């Protein structure tokens, strides 16, 4: 079939809107009509050329929601008409990783996914001149239709609005999951969140859900304060506006250091600050941000010797087919809020403007509706 997509033709170039050819689903695969997709900073990271795994041409996008149009041979858990969210972290429920209680990183299709291919080692997308186009994070939601492995689709409530719950495909789950699954924050904790964007604000609402007493938000952009407070932030710090060292300032503000800190910026210098403002003896710092090729984290080992813990999280530690439908239900029941974070709605043709809004710090989430 033919469908419309925003294609990343080369690193650093704007996405190009074009008609593309899409082959139907093979064994174990599902054809999905994407109804809406969010723009996550990770899409921009790959588009820009910063991603060591970036491959071009590719159809980016990993924060979508849509409807099953066709199922391939052997697909048993989904049928035509089901509403789904594609998962960049699949859940096969069989591999060593899926069977391990301490990780969500299903590895059953990770190697082909990293090469921009479906599990059989081929791509379903090509340009009209026959040039193959790579998949991205196994999702490629910047296309009106996409083919996704069955194990990488979460079946969700049919009443859930696509233009809101698409965000559960990455940002919401990553932020809330980092608090609940990775850090396992206790009631009464003090926390610091660096970066009040599409991920950091969800960390903040996760901290509120978990019953944290103090939630400090840190961002260079003062415009993020209002939204942070709406989602439960108790204190705001703009590092460019304080005298002296930001770490010392945060340690004092949290009365000796935070129980939990989170990096949602992707900046390795900020990651160090996040670790070092965690409390001596027990503070844990969770890296969420994705850093450019070649970037490395550093600290004095003494920071860890004296009891601070450095961890990371992918997709908030969520097992997607199990946890994503539940998070959609939380949204439908009013337990979590998404609507205020969807600051911009765009047509596919306007997708590059969405990345401009991200860079200008004007959007939290821009969502493309098909
Ligand atoms: P975003 O652009 O919406 O937000 C980033 C925020 O960080 C902005 O508010 C910006 O002003 C702030 N910021 C930038 N530099 C800063 C600094 N030095 N100090 C303080 N604040 C600073 O991006 P996002 O979509 O929220 O993504 C955030 C990061 O999380 C990205 O690196 C993204 O790739 C990563 N991410 C990781 C996962 C995962 O599973 N680990 C999932 C989604 C996104
Ligand atoms: N390809 C990059 C790393 C990108 C990365 O860390 N991706 C996160 C999800 S970000 C979603 O917005 C992730 O899930 N990582 C685990 C995995 O297996 O990819 C690089 O540096 O090579
Ligand atoms: Zn993302």
Automatic annotation (TrEMBL):
Which keywords does UniProt give here? Metal-binding, NAD, Oxidoreductase, Zinc
Please state the Enzyme Commission number of this protein.
Answer: 1.1.1.284
One GO BP on record is: formaldehyde catabolic process
UniProt GO molecular function:
alcohol dehydrogenase (NAD+) activity; S-(hydroxymethyl)glutathione dehydrogenase (NAD+) activity; S-(hydroxymethyl)glutathione dehydrogenase (NADP+) activity; zinc ion binding
Q: Name one Pfam family in it.
A: ADH_zinc_N
Name the needed cofactors: Zn(2+)
> Which CDD domains does UniProt cross-reference here?
alcohol_DH_class_III (cd08300)
Q: What general EC class does the enzyme of this chain belong to?
A: oxidoreductase
GO CC: one term? cytosol
Q: Which residues form the Alcohol dehydrogenase-like N-terminal domain?
A: 27-156
Q: List each copy of the Alcohol dehydrogenase-like C-terminal domain by range.
A: 198-330
Catalytic activity field: a secondary alcohol + NAD(+) = a ketone + NADH + H(+); a primary alcohol + NAD(+) = an aldehyde + NADH + H(+); S-(hydroxymethyl)glutathione + NADP(+) = S-formylglutathione + NADPH + H(+); S-(hydroxymethyl)glutathione + NAD(+) = S-formylglutathione + NADH + H(+)
Give the UniProt family note: Belongs to the zinc-containing alcohol dehydrogenase family. Class-III subfamily.
* PANTHER family to which the protein is assigned, alphabetical: ALCOHOL DEHYDROGENASE (PTHR43880), ALCOHOL DEHYDROGENASE CLASS-3 (PTHR43880:SF12)
Q: What is this protein called?
A: S-(hydroxymethyl)glutathione dehydrogenase
């Amino acid at each position: 079939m033919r469908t419309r997509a925003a294609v990343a033709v080369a690193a650093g170039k704007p996405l190009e809107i074009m008609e593309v050819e899409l082959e139907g689903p093979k064994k174990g695969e599902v054809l999905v009509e994407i109804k809406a997709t969010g723009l996550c900073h990770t899409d921009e990271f790959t588009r820009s050329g910063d991603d060591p795994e970036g491959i071009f041409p590719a159809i980016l996008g990993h924060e979508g929601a849509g409807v099953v149009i066709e199922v391939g041979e052997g697909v048993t858990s989904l049928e035509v008409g089901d509403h789904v969210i594609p998962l960049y972290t699949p859940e096969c429920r069989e591999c060593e990783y899926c069977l391990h209680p301490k990780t969500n990183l299903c590895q059953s299709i990770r190697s082909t996914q990293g090469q921009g291919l479906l599990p059989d080692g081929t791509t379903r997308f090509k340009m009209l001149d026959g040039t193959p186009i790579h998949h991205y994070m196994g999702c490629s939601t910047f296309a009106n239709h996409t083919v996704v492995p069955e194990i990488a689709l979460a079946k969700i409530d049919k009443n859930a609005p696509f233009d809101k719950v698409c965000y559960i495909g990455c940002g919401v789950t990553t932020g809330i999951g980092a608090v609940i699954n990775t850090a396992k924050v206790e009631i009464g904790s003090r926390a610091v969140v660096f970066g009040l964007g599409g991920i950091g604000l969800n960390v903040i609402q996760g901290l509120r859900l978990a019953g944290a007493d103090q939630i400090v938000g840190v961002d260079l952009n003062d415009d993020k304060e209002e939204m942070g407070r709406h989602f439960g932030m108790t204190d705001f710090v703009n590092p460019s506006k304080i005298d002296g060292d930001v770490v010392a300032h945060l340690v004092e503000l949290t009365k000796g250091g935070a129980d939990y800190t989170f990096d949602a910026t992707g900046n390795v210098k900020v990651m160090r600050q996040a670790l070092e403002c965690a409390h001596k003896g027990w503070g844990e710092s969770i890296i969420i941000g994705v850093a450019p090729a070649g970037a490395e984290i550093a600290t004095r080992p003494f920071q860890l010797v004296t009891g601070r813990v450095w961890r990371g999280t992918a997709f908030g530690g969520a097992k997607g087919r199990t946890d994503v439908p539940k998070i959609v239900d939380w949204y439908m029941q009013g337990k979590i809020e998404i609507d205020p974070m969807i600051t911009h709605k765009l047509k596919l043709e306007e997708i590059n403007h969405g990345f401009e809004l991200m860079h200008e710090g004007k959007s939290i989430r821009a969502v493309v509706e098909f």
